[in-house]
């Protein structure tokens, strides 16, 4: 058990009189929402009657009571239910802050009902398709009892109990599915690992799957601004978990952080997983979850935008419905013929290709290729070059090491990039390394692409030096060199996995080899265009979300990179010819 390892502080106080959403106040009972009902004038009217069971008490295995809202079609036919689990408020999908945020991104909300949870499914659509939607306030959130604890196997047990409660309601057909993005995706991994009997399928849409490696210390480098914002906004009447305090008390992976990794091998239900190359918070965890779950029936769709617009686009909602129809209703609709992988190739020049079918990721015709770093010429090359060194001021935000290769024919770089470096620290006993893989046009300009509909001046300013989740600039990775030890079980030739359970400081003059995993990528390059690898002591893309500070490395002195000869540093990534 990890009870003595977790850290709790007072949650953000909850005052329901300050809420301005319909149904936000605690008011148990059942009511009918008529055809034409509008949550707010900015949202669409309901196309059907919906039964709202509000603030229904659900007792968990330890006696704690949580409260849920259930929205279901007015029918005597039993229906499946899909769950949107998060502590962000079960009836606050049209809260002003969420509406303003999605509006900033340029999303059109007029087609939605406003009855959805933030990042969750729209009940208007799903009820019209013969589904119920459950919105829980998990343990400790708002009026629910207990203390808020997030993203752990214990939260998975709570989720299990709710699934089993829903599966035996008199209006339910016995099948429960899970959907939603970000928090609503992450919680699905933990719930499915508990194997609740009534769980029929999951659909995690962009979500972390290892809280240490994906959030508080990616690459072993402490990164607290986003978890501080995330945990600080958790609202309830008691205590809430604090990741930052936990990370300060537990800087290396131990029992606490192990409890925040789902038991992937226990997840065996059908899974529709959605990810992207560009989500600076969720990309690694989404791909890791898809790779490691034991489900025989699992699908991966890789899109080329950002999670929120993608989740609500009509073709994607309809695609998810086909999946749920198959596994929650038993409809023989041919879903199994859907390609197991649909991936994107981004050219960052208006010609992205999406929904490319494959049996695996990377595609089977992509060949892992080593591009060797040549510090003497600043290039990437197919053969190992003569020995040379490059160095940069580790404390500088502008000094860096750069290596490029120009393609001669249309080429797709698609899969998991890995960087092996021989490095040395001058003037310090450790190194925080940041690496970037970028596409340049023929003239050497770095190509970028917005992930959201709004491309205007405000978005330009937000993403210039931050808000990395909203603009794709390439693939990236990071590593604290003292935490370079590889997990011998999880590491593969394509993807290094670090144990992060020990520190091995550098001695003066010591040269070590390290492996760094970068975000999966799918880039299309045409003759004359360039692939550029950058190694730096600074994360040049800034914080993940608007208003989030950049990670602060602990660097001193100079970083030295050895290339060629007996210390051949290389970038490995799958490549294939790019067809028409």
Sequence-ordered SSE layout with sheet pairings:
Layout: E1 8-10, E2 29-33, E3 50-59, E4 65-73, E5 79-83, H1 96-104, H2 123-128, E6 132-137, H3 153-167, E7 172-181, H4 183-193, E8 199-205, H5 211-216, H6 225-232, E9 239-241, H7 243-249, H8 255-258, E10 271-276, H9 283-292, E11 298-303, H10 307-312, H11 314-328, E12 341-345, E13 353-358, E14 367-374, E15 379-381, E16 388-393, E17 401-406, E18 411-415, E19 418-426, E20 432-440, E21 449-450, H12 457-464, E22 471-472, E23 475-480, E24 511-517, E25 521-525, E26 530-536, E27 558-563, E28 570-577
Parallel strand pairs: 5-6, 5-7, 7-8, 8-10, 10-11, 11-12
Antiparallel strand pairs: 1-9, 2-3, 3-4, 4-6, 12-13, 14-15, 14-28, 16-27, 17-26, 18-25, 18-28, 19-24, 19-27, 19-28, 20-23, 20-26, 21-22
Helix pairs in contact: 3-4
Description:
The relative contact order is 0.12. This protein is α+β, with helices and mostly antiparallel strands and 580 residues long. It is globular. The protein has helices at residues 96-104, 123-128, 153-167, 183-193, 211-216, 225-232, 243-249, 255-258, 283-292, 307-312, 314-328, 457-464; strands at residues 8-10, 29-33, 50-59, 65-73, 79-83, 132-137, 172-181, 199-205, 239-241, 271-276, 298-303, 341-345, 353-358, 367-374, 379-381, 388-393, 401-406, 411-415, 418-426, 432-440, 449-450, 471-472, 475-480, 511-517, 521-525, 530-536, 558-563, 570-577. The protein folds into 2 domains: 8-338, Rossmann fold, CATH 3.40.50.1820; 367-577, Galactose-binding domain-like (Jelly Rolls), CATH 2.60.120. The strands form 5 sheets. The protein has an 11-stranded mixed β-sheet with strand order 2-3-4-6-5-7-8-10-11-12-13, with helices on both faces.
